[in-house]
Write a structure and sequence with these properties.
Blueprint: H1 9-19, E1 26-31, E2 34-39, E3 45-48, H2 57-65, E4 70-85, E5 91-96, E6 122-137, E7 155-171, H3 174-178, E8 192-193, H4 194-204, H5 210-223, E9 226-233, E10 236-241
Parallel strand pairs: 3-4, 4-6
Antiparallel strand pairs: 1-2, 2-3, 4-5, 6-7, 8-10, 9-10
Helix pairs in contact: 4-5
C-alpha cells in the first residue's frame, strides 16, 4: 500500500466502506502525478477527504481533465468528541465538543472548488458523522511536539476515529445543489440581501452562522445561480436569481 502510514482511523474506515461498495475497486493507486484513494473498475475515482476540501483542487482538476468521474466523500462532524489517553492508551478524559456543524459549514471549504462543482463528472458526497478526535497526553511539554507554541500543552493530536455514519447528501448537477436553497430564493423576480439570505437559510439550517451563509451565497454566485444586481438596500448589496 502507498501513502497509508499516517492514515487515521476515520480515513481508513471510510475508504474500506466505499471501496467495499464497488466490485473490482482498488485502493491507493497511482494515477498520473496523484494517488487515488479508490480506483473503480470503470476508471472512476473516489477520494475520501477528511481534511480541508480546498486542498483537493489540483487533484480534482487533473482527474476531470483526464475525463474521469470523481466522487469526493467528505465526513461532516455533526457530533464530535475529544478523547485523551495517556501514553499507555488508557482514556483519561472524554468530552463532547461544543462545535456544531451543518451543511452550510462546508461552503467555506468550497471557495477554491467552485469551478468544478457543476462539472458533469464531479460529485460531492457529504456524510453526517459522529467523530472522535484522539489525543495523547504525555504529561510533560518536553515529550510533546508543540513546545514552541505560544500556549504550551502536554498533549498531541494522534488521530480521528469514525464512531457512526449518518445521512449522506449527494451533490451532483444543478438540481441537487438547488435543493440546498429555500425555493423562495429561486423565484424569478425575487431580490434579497445577504442578511435576508441568512434569515431564509436558518429555516432549513437553524444553527447556520451568518458568516457561513455569506460564504454559501458567494459560492452560489460563482456557480451561476445568483448575481449581484449593483443595487443596495442600505449598506447591503442586492442579489437575484439567474
Amino acid at each position: 500500500m502507498i501513502n497509508t502510514y499516517n492514515e487515521t482511523h476515520l480515513h481508513r474506515t471510510l475508504k474500506e466502506i466505499y471501496a467495499g461498495r464497488h466490485d473490482g475497486a482498488q485502493k491507493e493507486v497511482q494515477c498520473g502525478p496523484f494517488i487515488a484513494d479508490i480506483l473503480l473498475s470503470d476508471g472512476g475515482i473516489i477520494e475520501i477527504q477528511t481534511g480541508t476540501l480546498a486542498s483537493l483542487a489540483p487533484k480534482i482538476a487533473y482527474f476531470l481533465g483526464e475525463k474521469r468521474k470523481i466522487r469526493v466523500v467528505h465526513p461532516l462532524a455533526v457530533e464530535k468528541y475529544v478523547e485523551t489517553t495517556d501514553e499507555s492508551g488508557r482514556i483519561i478524559r472524554r468530552k463532547k465538543s461544543p462545535k456544531k456543524l451543518n451543511l452550510t459549514s462546508v461552503f467555506r471549504e468550497l471557495t477554491k472548488l467552485y469551478p468544478y462543482l457543476l462539472d458533469r463528472n464531479f460529485t460531492l458526497e457529504i456524510v453526517e458523522s459522529k467523530i472522535t478526535d484522539q489525543r495523547t497526553d504525555f504529561g510533560s511539554i518536553e515529550k510533546a511536539d508543540n513546545s514552541r507554541r505560544r500556549h504550551r500543552r502536554t498533549w498531541n493530536k494522534t488521530g480521528k476515529r469514525l464512531d457512526e455514519l449518518g445521512k449522506a447528501t449527494v451533490l451532483h448537477g444543478k438540481a441537487a445543489w438547488k435543493k440546498l436553497i429555500p425555493a423562495a430564493l429561486l423565484k424569478k423576480d425575487r431580490e434579497f440581501t445577504a442578511p435576508e439570505f441568512h434569515r431564509e437559510l436558518i429555516v432549513l439550517y437553524p444553527k447556520a452562522k451568518r458568516q457561513e451563509t455569506a460564504v454559501m451565497l458567494w459560492v452560489y454566485v460563482k456557480m451561476g445561480f445568483f448575481e449581484r444586481t449593483g443595487k443596495k438596500k442600505g449598506n447591503a448589496f442586492i442579489y437575484k436569481p439567474l
